[in-house]
Design brief:
Radius of gyration: 18 Å
Structural class: alpha+beta
Strand order of the largest sheet: 1-4-5-8-9-10-11-12
Strand content: 25-35%
CATH topology: Metallo-beta-lactamase, Chain A
Number of helices: 9
Amino acid sequence: MKLTRRAAILGGAALAGTLPFRSFASVEMGNLKIDTLSDGNLVLPGSMILGDRVGEAGDILARYGLTPDQFTPDCNVTLLRDGTNTVLFDTGAGANFMPTAGRLLDSLDTLGVTPEEVTHVIFTHAHPDHLWGVLDDFDEPVFYNAKHMINRAERDFWLDPNTPDAIGEARMAFAAGAIRNLQTIEDYLETFEDGDEVVSGISAFATNGHTPGHTSFEIRGGSDSLMIIGDAIGNHHVGFEVPSWASGSDQDQDMGIATRERLLDRLANEQMAMIGFHFPFPGVGRAEKSGDTYKFVAA
């Protein structure tokens, strides 16, 4: 696997909290061209990531030059081209979630890819920063030529009429946005199950916990493999060093822990490359294990 660091730096911090905009970086894997595209970044309180561990995380975060007060994680959308298919994994946040995110179309333009060229949109899950970029300002699908695909359990959860009441006040806006976006693209939307080959060479791998149907995707190209992990591991620091700590962003925190530990064990043992949605741009790297802890090693 070869990473070409062609990431473009476009502009500065034009908005409060906005990081310099890195457009794209390319990975070559067999006959596959995989690009990680910047959708900007989020601005989050530390408790959303650390949950009840805010007071315990200071030493770990200091090693990464971070504090527990606020995080500004990158948002890395993945684009795969195999000569026939142009596959987008998630669609970013769009214009209505945070002013620091929603830059995916700029990144695609810098890469020279138009929305109509995208043949497949595959969702890891239906949180705002992964789904809300699917519609334009007129509530029309941005990637109108593409087949849209999501795990069946994920779709069913968000479209269940009981979910908005059951999910909790902090996530009610997430539910409302998921309902609106998923219902609008219903005619474009297909579902898959764990283990399905969703597109040739791309297999679904269940990583539930962050959401009920959260899915990662294993990509094989030649002798290489790579896992797109979405938010199954939500950061490059605490999520690796102490995967047994609950994440405040996981809907089912116990399941999130079990999934994170299982996924890290596999990635480290197989030395499989990964792309993390919220890892430092471009989000590509590997997991190294040392005792009971792990470390993210950027490619």
